[in-house]
Every structure is written in C-alpha cells, then in structure tokens.
Amino acid sequence: MDELKNAVLQRVQEYLVTEFYGRTYCDDALINLSLAFVDLARENNHLYRAIFVEDHFGVQTMREFCYKLAIERLQSNPDAKRLSKDRQMDLVTGCWIIATGIASLVSSGYINIEQKQMVSLLKAQISDFIQHDRFNSQLAPGSMANISFGNSKMAQL
Predict the structure, then answer these.
(1) Under CATH, what is the fold of the domain 2-156?
(2) Is it the case that residue 33 has pLDDT exceeding 90?
C-alpha cells in the first residue's frame, strides 16, 4: 500500500510542478510560486483542499516538497539569497501564510483580487521581511522558532 501511496504522491507533485508551480506571472520566482498556489486553490479547489486542508497526502511530505521548491525559487532573488537559511525559511513561511490567506479568500469567493494587486502585496511583504528583519524566528519568543517542522530534514533545505 505504501508503494501505491508514494506513486500517487509523486504524481501529484509532478502535476503541481508542471501544471501550476511552473507558471510565470512576474520577474520574481517566489511570487510566481505564491500566485500559482492561489491559482491551484481557484482552479482545482478539490486538489488544493485535499492537499492543504484535509491532508490526504501527508503533512510532512508535502511540507518538505513545498519548502524545498520555494527555497530553490528564492535563490533567484539576490537580496533573499544573502539571508541565512533560517531567515530564508522565515521568508518562505511568510509568503506561504499570505498566499494561503489569499487562496482561501479567493477560492471561497470572499474576495476578488487582481493579479497585479497580489504581486504588489507579495513584493511589499518580501521587501519588508528582508529590509526590516520582520517575522524573524530568532528574535521573537513564541514565533517561528517554536513551530515544529516535524523532523530534521527541514534543516537540510
């Protein structure tokens, strides 16, 4: 049964990369990934919910997949690339939180937001996180430093 589950998971990840996470909306690869996440929720809400709400594919496995992909994309941003691995994880987590909020509100019909507005919001967030050291898991007690990523594999990303 594990073989079947792993095969389905591999296929889902390949589908996400080819059909959504490879899309280009602007000149920032992390923003592209964030917008693709929103599009997944909008265009294939059942799959979005199965992965990110109902956890049909395993939280740890999908978390590692998403973080690895996001950290790879982040390397194309010269300012973000200079950050420590911990700060890069903080930045990716911040983008993911914002993208999840937008995805949830858009897919449920609560808001109608233009792509350029989402790009502007995400660019501001990324710039603010980098320039002002916001959302720093090393500074604030009770923040990201206390969020568990499940295992030590996350440290390798």
Answers:
(1) Tetracycline Repressor; domain 2 (1.10.357)
(2) yes
pLDDT at 30: 94
d(CA 89, CA 8): 27
The tens digit of pLDDT for each residue in 82-138 reads 999 999 999 999 999 999 999 999 999 999 999 999 999 999 999 998 888 776 666
Q: Which of 128, 117, 142 is nearest to 95 (CA)?
A: 128
* Amino acid, single-letter form, for residue 34: S
Is residue 146 scored above 60 in pLDDT?
A: no
CA–CA gap between residue 34 and residue 28 (Å, rounded): 10
Rounded Cα distance, 16 and 76, in Å: 20
Distance CA(85)–CA(148), nearest Å, equals 16
Q: 20, 103 in Cβ contact below 8 A?
A: no
What is the residue extent of each domain of the chain? 2-156
Other C-beta atoms lying within 10 Å of the C-beta of residue 142: 7
Give me the phi and psi of 139, to 5 degrees please.
Answer: -100, -40
